[in-house]
Amino acid sequence: MDLPVDEWKSYLFQKWSLLPKSIQFTISTAETLSDVFLHSSSLLQSEDEMFLKRLSMDYLVGKDPNAPLFYREEGNKKFQEKDYMGAAVLYSKGVSHSGPNTEDISLCYANRSAALFHLGQYETCLKDIIRAQTHGYPERLQPKMMLRKAECLVTLGRLQEASQAISDLECNLTAKPILTASQFQILQRNLGHLKMKVQEKENITETFPAALTKAFEDMDLREENEQISSASSSVRLCTDPLKGRYLIATKDILPGELLVKEDAFVSVLNPGEMPPLHHGLESKWDTRVTNGDVYCHRCLKHTLATVPCDGCSYAKYCSQECLQQAWDLYHSIECSLGGLLLTLGVFCHVALRSTLIARFEDVDNVIKKLRGEIRNKDICLPESKTLVQTSDDLGGEGEKNGKRFETPIPGCDINGKYGNNYNAVFNLLPHTENQKPEHKFLCALSVSALCRQLDTTSLQTLTTGLKSSQPKAAMVPALCQELHIWGVAMLRHMLQLQCNAQAITTIQQTESKENVITNSRQVRLATGIFPVVSLLNHSCSPNTSVSFISTVATVRASEQIGKGQEILHCYGPHESRMGVAERQKKLRSQYFFDCNCPACQNEQHRPAAGPRWEAFCCSRCRALMQGDDMLSCNNASCTEAVSRDHLVSQLQDLQQQVGMAQKLLRNGKLERAIQLLLGCQHDAESFLSAEHSMVGAIEDDLAQAYAALGDWQKSATHLQRSLQVVEVRHGPSSVEMGHELFKLAQIFFNGKDPFLLFC
């Protein structure tokens, strides 16, 4: 969750409501964030901190020595059920609670290697075998794991290493016979099979496909912008008194062209929406799977073989390298604060991590900048004196009386370059004047409570790796004295995130044991700050699309963009998903502006009518129905009329029937699902428009069912009908349309392979 847990929010909102009006007025009218922070933090009492501490204790982020055995046994149950993925995650949970160089951690690593072997992840399996051995895997169990190692090497075609592993295992068995006679015979038989495989199998050289290599190379920017890091030379940074900073095209841009490829300045994994388990006899340890169990907490790479932090059970990484990088940059401070950070929410965590990463830039300038804010105002003057052209300079039409308007751009360095750095992050707008007083109070007290946990020991760690002319010993007292400055910085970042946070998304797939269909859905994986992506202004019908690979955001043109045209991104409320009134309300409440994009202007001047994907049709002549409470046929020669409530009730009944069909589909009862869906299709035609979203959903479900039966022709027919609905609702260049076309291509091209993707 972005903001603190509901209990802490309710507690602080009540505290705010009980404050004297004079104090509320002082905080509400404070001119600077420094004043908001100082006035609010002075109200944080010891009983408030105790309440927050009790909430934080609900999160089990420490290492529990009794947990590894529990998770190993639960993992063994999954393993026996042949749910190897579930087993791997539970073994990982056991690893995260184990101390280094213990039998617990070695057993969990070894068991996980077995699960990974069955999942075909042989390289990762080998890494877990090495980890188990490094942490002192019991000698009595070594033969079985060494055999697994040899099997992996044979499968991977590393035959020389496989032969050496087999030889080592045989030598060990001869020198130290630790198996029973029956165990020895089984092992000898397996070794014999492996030797035959080594003799028969040709050397397999692993190569990275040339086409795939080229695909990755094509994702790089063709020519990087000299003015804006991580951006293409096809865009230019401009400024306007009303728009603020924005990007425009310096040339005609074709659809698909890569405009921005930016790594997050900071990112924090989203822990998910599942509440913490309340401690009890049967729920002490959590077997639920969250993003934090299968994604690296630094690079966001998906992995079933996480490497845990030595100090806590929460932070997990894809490799020792990511673990060390995270520790050096920020986790050495965050490690002891895990439960508190989960309680205070992702925004507070991002705010802390931003300031921790800022230490590795020029800390003297950072503190100077923060002091400047406290003395002056919330938005500092830019360091750069560079003047940047407005969009009018490109076309010449905006020139008035021969003069060109030039404006300094905040966030640029002394050389006029805008980069992915703390200076750019700091200059993102917090919109202090637009934030509600109680929200600023919530953020300020949350940050204040976090600052109080950053004790002297933590502050000493802050000096590690800092670039500064001051000796580290001299900096520790200074940092202690300037803790309120870092508090103001964190408050600034926490407020910035309401408008500048970027949801890092990924596609997650879920499989069904009963049928061959794989469902996929887009989920929010993490929250990040991307200074360059944040330069893009909003449109409800944007000309770009944003996607993510781990922590890297890529912005591509989704349509042709003319020279001088603004590069636009959608902040969430898209015209294909929301009506104009709902979009305007959301943008006003979260981003503090009234959208005036062409989509909003066109929709506001259009006669009031519901979107086509929600429209009802006449049961007699199939013309669209119109009206409010009582709908009448749009065909002048038809007198059909029906109440909206009646049609809504029909739609609800139909949705229930479709839900039942989808359940049958998930359970592999395909014939029954098709029979029910065909009935739903007939019912829908009697009162829904051909472009109604429910019609599209029924067609998509039918396509799934026929694909599972291997009837590709019928599957393609229904999917093509679904495509028509998707195009009407989301547009021909939408991500949704691309996903549907990909599914159709799979049916046409790979008809013999039933492993199709649907959502």
Structure at a glance:
With 759 residues, this protein is an alpha+beta fold. The strands form 7 sheets. Strands 4, 9, 10 and 18 form a 4-stranded mixed β-sheet that branches.
Strand count, sense and closure of the main sheet? 4 strands, mixed
User: Structural class of the helix and strand makeup?
Assistant: alpha+beta
Morphology call: globular
Please report the number of helical segments: 30
Report on this structure:
It holds the Pfam family zf-MYND. Its main location: cytoplasm. Residues 296-335 form the MYND-type domain. It catalyses: L-lysyl-[protein] + S-adenosyl-L-methionine = N(6)-methyl-L-lysyl-[protein] + S-adenosyl-L-homocysteine + H(+). The radius of gyration is 30 Å and the shape is globular. With 759 residues, it is an alpha+beta fold. The chain has 30 helices and 18 strands. Among the domains are: 67-200, Tetratricopeptide repeat domain (Serine Threonine Protein Phosphatase 5, Tetratricopeptide repeat, Alpha Horseshoe), CATH 1.25.40; 625-758, Serine Threonine Protein Phosphatase 5, Tetratricopeptide repeat, CATH 1.25.40.10. It is 50% helix and 11% strand. The two termini are 25 Å apart.
